[in-house]
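User: two proteins, same treatment. go.

Assistant:
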Amino acid sequence: MDALESGDASTASKVAAITPAFWIMKILATTLGETAGDFISMTLGLGYYAGLAITFSALAIIVYFQISRDYRPLMFWTAIVATTTAGTEISDFMDRSLGLGYLWGSVVLTSGLLLTLAIWYWRDRNLSVTPILRRDIEILFWIAVLFSNSLGTAFGDFLVDEGGLSFIQGALVTAGVIGVVAALHYLTRVNDVLLFWIAFVFTRPFGATFGDFLTKPIDLGGLNLPRENASLITLALLLSVLYVSTRRSQQTAASKQSA
């Protein structure tokens, strides 16, 4: 686990390098956040109020340590998972406890995300996440991440519950959006910062609908896996990709220093 605890070539920044491995881990983190969030509120029977309190408290503690230390891959991705888990609870709480529905919940979350990005741009004149060096900008980054993951959850639930799509169909729709964003990145000159945040939002419903596919009952189109088992499998995959990518980054940095 040493590789997961040490920094890499992006040590100066507080955000992981944006590589294909980043997006794979983001999707796995969102899947884990969906299954873990549902495990807390549904499997354990704690409900959305208690689930939101638990996940938000854990998120606050994890992000505090993330902000107060230098970049650590394991801590960074723990914080990402915490935002996706809390995002699941926030979206469900707004829809089912407050009765806002997915449409108005999405409007509130979109407004929060746009306001956060506007404040970020006003303070820094830049919305790029590579690099993030200042603490105030990092705080805004994590607020934007929480809003985007909550919004992605609401959109994924909207596709399935109100759009009438199966979990796999919902995942395919969001995968199509991600594919379009990737094509725009590689084939056009569309602003990369804009594409990053679109991809960041839509990787959330992709992971969330896939997480629901793993755990929902068979008669609803899922595989009916226990949420705790699905969470553990997804966590193992996330840690494996994180370990490999971190080791590769360290080896690349070491070879550059010795050259």
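Protein 2:
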Amino acid sequence: MSSPADRLSAVLDRFERPLLGYALVRCGDHGLAQDAVQETLLRFFRHAPAGDLESLAPWLFTTCRNALIDLRRKSSRHPLMDFHPDSGVDDPISPAMAPDEALEEKETTAALHRLIAGLPGNQQEVVRLKFETGLAYRDIAAATGLSIANVGWLLHQAVTTLRHDWQRLEAAGPRPFATC
């Protein structure tokens, strides 16, 4: 059986970055996001819920969400914000990419983030949990308190809206990141 330190190390390797990204897009403050992830990991170490690594995801994301709320209440530094496209959580652009490709990728990503920011809050949250952290529907349901069916419906609605909005953007004419 692995030691608590080994389990914590495995959780850090698998979930630290997704948790930080999730916290950052929820609050828009890198310091507050780091504090929330640190508090989440401390709570994990203290309470060590049972289960394999992947089954811990709902507990970790729920705990991170609650830690953000607690920290916000305590500090009142910044209100929780919905997704901010310039929050810095994007994956770095590949250094092998040509400059024009890198610019196109960055502008496309920014446009998509703006579209996501236009979704209702509950749809934004499930989209982030599904596509940015890779959680399964059941894990998203556990982390948000929604039913699995509701998670599926919200994701379907969000993707349909995003597809429609993206098509409308493309039909509007040339954009700086349009491919020639």
